[in-house]
Amino acid sequence: MSKKHVVVGMSGGVDSSVAAYLLKQQGYAVTGLFMKNWEDDDTDTHCTSRQDFLDAASVADLLDIPFEAVNFSEAYKERVFSNFLAEYRAGRTPNPDVLCNAEIKFKAFLEHALQLGADYIATGHYAQIREFNGVFQLLKGEDGTKDQSYFLYRLNQEQLANALFPIGHLYKREVRKIARDLKLPNSTKKDSTGICFIGERPFREFLSRYLPREPGDIQTSDGTVVGKHLGLMYYTIGQRQGLGIGGTRTGADCPWFVCGKDMDNNVLIVVQGHDHPRLLQSSVKALDLTWISNEEPHCDWVYGAKTRYRQSDAPCTIAHVSDGHCQIDFAQSQWAITPGQSVVVYESNVCLGGGIIGE
User: Fold this and answer.
1) 326 is an active site residue
2) Quick check: is 100 catalytic?
3) Rg (CA), the chain
4) What angle do CA 324, 330, 331 make, to 5 degrees?
5) Does 33 lie in the same domain as 161?
6) What three-state secondary structure class fits 233?
């Protein structure tokens, strides 16, 4: 009987490298694949894709597995980056990693792997998959500090049926130990952070390449002008740093926070104090809903939901599910809910799905 064939998305990082090793140890026929999703800045000092490719190739050589690179940059620009720019242009704060997983890593990559004759694809995500009563469920990763199910909530049954998460049951420290024991060349490589195509470069500098700056007033909620902003696209709800205004009115030691944007008048609205009422919401409208099991959640059950990554699940109920949107009501008000980000719903450690936060 021939071995099951798995194509592993190898990013050059330690997680996907260990994932490839574990699959080979489990008896799979493993092929490593490096996805090139961005090529606008190949010569830019902030772009790490060349080094990432070399790291992935070195690991594949050490593990003695076939390795190839595939350029998905056109698909990425069309399916992910265009949405990223449109959302910022509209004053919202998108999460491109969510769309990248749904459209590139588990669609374009999956389609390519199946054409190669693969039975599965695998990645180094900290999440788990379980089949329960004929339905594939997405579970949180065992390591709660690294769980990445939030970024995977848009995956469907077909995608989960063809995917493996080999390190989802491990803690990060265990993954690092495996890499060190194997003497992988990237065993001590720092985890990547932030938006992949921006890297370590200043965010404002990057965005200004694609969207024109439109400076305007910073105002308090009562209309008092307290400063100038560089462009609404550069700011997000709850932002404290980089506003360029000192403490006034309620005290010099009380920091300012962004609480809203008036797109029609190009005004950034700010308030003072972390717990200002304008920064707290007890409900959120979720748009463009995706439910992993294809079944809508019950409207009278208590679930947990998070409106940003690394947030604890907050008790909530779901109401008014219709036409691809719903209202999520929280037991306690949530801080700095941000339009364009995702609200993801859980039942215990099972990720049910979610949607994009509306205005």
Assistant:
1) no
2) yes
3) 22
4) 150
5) yes
6) helix
Same domain, 266 and 289: no
Helices within the chain (DSSP H only): 14-25, 49-63, 73-76, 82-89, 96-100, 109-115, 157-161, 172-181, 203-208
- At 228-252, the pLDDT tens digits run 999 999 999 999 999 999 655 555 5
We report the CATH number of the domain holding residue 21 as: 3.40.50.620
CA separation (Å) from 126 to 19, 106, 118, 156? Answer: 10, 15, 22, 17
Reference 121, options 104, 139, 106; nearest CA is 106
Does residue 197 register a pLDDT over 80? no
Total residue length of the chain: 359
Asked whether residue 140 carries a pLDDT value surpassing 60, the answer given is yes
Question: Is residue 172 assigned to a domain?
Answer: yes
Task: Tell me whether strands 135-140 and 127-132 are parallel, antiparallel or unpaired.
Answer: antiparallel
pTM over 0.90: yes
Residue of 196, 259, 316, 326 with catalytic role: 196
CB atoms within 10 A of CB 144: 12
CA dihedral angle for residue 256, residue 259, residue 262, residue 265, rounded to 10 degrees: -10
Answer whether 17's CB lies under 8 Å from 175's CB. no
The CA distance from 282 to 335, in Å, is 9
Q: How far apart are CA 212 and CA 109, in angstroms?
A: 33
* Residues 336 and 127: beta-carbon distance below 8 Å: no
**What would the DSSP string read from start to end of 82-100?**
HHHHHHHHTT----HHHHH
Q: How far apart are CA 243 and CA 258, in angstroms?
A: 8
Instruction: Indicate the angle between helix axes 14-25 and 172-181, nearest 10 degrees.
Output: 70
Is the pLDDT at 320 greater than 90, yes or no? no
Range of the domain at 259: 213-274
Q: Catalytic residue among 100, 316, 326, 351, which?
A: 100
